[in-house]
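Figure S7 source data.
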Amino acid sequence: MKSDCIFCKIIKGESPAKFVYRDMDFVAFHNIKPSAPVHVLLVPVEHIESVNALEERHGAVISKMIIRAKEIAKQLGISDSGYKLVINVGRGAGQIVFHLHIHLIGGW
Ligand code: 5GP
Ligand code: ZN
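Tokens for the predicted zinc ion complex:
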């Protein structure tokens, strides 16, 4: 946990969010500034700065997040219309929160 990280604060319950999923390893909540009708963020509980900081031991949580993203898409009714799973890596790619997250975007 990093005290100045907004996603760590959300995970700890120190900042509010509309959660759609949570377990011991990761959480999912609605983006505060959605860029599509559905815009959910999946975030590991561990503070990992970006894909660049991933290690082999993170493999299980990352695959579980992708499988859960599929379930959340189904739950929110966007499986058939289509959705994107996006990870921005680094400032040049538009990453503004340096706590790794997967964007689940769809509902057009
Ligand atoms: P990035 O550009 O780093 O890949 O994506 C960060 C995302 O986090 C942005 O789409 C932004 O709208 C979202 N975000 C930033 N701060 C908050 C917050 O406090 N709550 C929620 N729910 N989303 C946030
Ligand atoms: Zn964090």
